[in-house]
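Morning - 6-O-phosphoryl inosine monophosphate inputs below, output right after.
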Amino acid sequence: MTNKVDILLGLQWGDEGKGKLVDVLTPRYDIIARFQGGPNAGHTLEFEGTKHVLHTIPSGIFHSTVTNLVGNGVVIDPVVFAKEIAALRVKNVPVNDRLLISRKAHVIVPTHRLLDRASEASKGEAKIGSTLKGIGPSYMDKTGRNGLRVGDLLDEKFPQLYEALKQKHIHLLKGFEAFYTPQEGELDAMEKEFMEGVAVLKSLTIVDSEHYVNRALLEGKKILAEGAQGSMLDIDFGTYPFVTSSNTVAAGACTGIGIAPARIGEVIGIFKAYCTRVGGGPFPTELTDETGEHMRKVGNEFGSTTGRARRCGWLDLPQMKYACMINGVTQLIMMKADVLSDFDTIRVCTHYQTAEGLIDYLPYDIDPSKVQPVYADLPGWKMDLTGMRHDHELPDALTGYIAYIEEKLGVPITVVSVGPDRTQTIVREKALA
Ligand code: GDP
Ligand code: IMO
Ligand code: MG
């Protein structure tokens, strides 16, 4: 019998705390594999008083016991990648010994970043709020069958392949001239950095990752697939067009590392005790008042990749139900419960008021003009949680909030996080049993 792959993924609009939890769970696994996204991700880990932010490299990298794999579904910007590796080497992390790269992963080239900027500039008010890392254009080239893959970097024809793609992009950029033109010499400088990054990427261990992963499963190895972004940013099931360009949901792990659906084990869905979103697009429970401002301040809700302020609001159960359904979530992890400690009342959206009446599911269009959230009010716990380490220490009001969510979603909450540090994590053994 071969082993299965567990998946940890975000159930909201990203930044749920995936990096922290992957780091916490890593000792239980042999391989940590990223399956989609790219440098648009910012995964934060904290331990021994230091904060680390990863973009493309899996969050198991700080553990000597595991291999980290960047799967074929990821898009890699060699520039960002080389910077991440350099930052890890400064911290004495032997990256080369712990990291494998899929030969089939696609490469973000400098003109992808320029096209991302041009596309956003042309949209004006309707812009996505992209991280401008070249994600959309590189996935477009992947599905349009024009992309460059890591394997191509090793090919003697690479200079010609790169040049052909660049020329195609320059042609496309001309169409955006009314909205955006790169500065004089900008592309040359970007290309220089890119080629340096390519050299770093080529010095790493590049593998046929689908063979590697399936062989590892046959050998009984345990694999955790680490998601990026969140289910509501999924290209198919998210708030299109305000989404990213990959499948962030559980199915994405199959295509993103090359495993059959029957090889999926636990699907661990991670969510904040409230909700955030960065960038444009609908967010039914968004709070634009001082309550939202308080969440942002206490939760330090500023983007790990772009530094932008994150929009904040209450937990949205129709949205969470939808994410549990699409992903087949088998267990839930609740993050940042500590951020809500000051509130007398905790609100949870249970339904939406729509023109068709009250509904408890996520409809096609969740524009604020179409859905108004309806809330249940639960008592707050008004207690500092950050020093707590055991389930039995949690205040009754929080236990009640947890039970309420478990009942509404029909999935157990197995871990509760009460602070950014690795140690500020409560594993609820009762629920796991
Ligand atoms: P990711 O993209 O899902 O990995 O999440 P990010 O790293 O972008 O954002 C999560 C932020 O919340 C980071 O700054 C974490 O250090 C922080 N964080 C994670 N868990 C907790 C928690 O339980 N409480 C608090 N206060 N902060 C947390
Ligand atoms: P992690 O993995 C939060 C958002 C952007 C924008 C939209 C499209 O850290 O949770 P893109 O750069 O993909 O073209 O942006 O998606 N976005 C994220 N929001 N967390 C992320 O990653 C995100 N990655 C992209 O803000 O609205
Ligand atoms: Mg993040």
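Note: The mean pLDDT is 97.

O.
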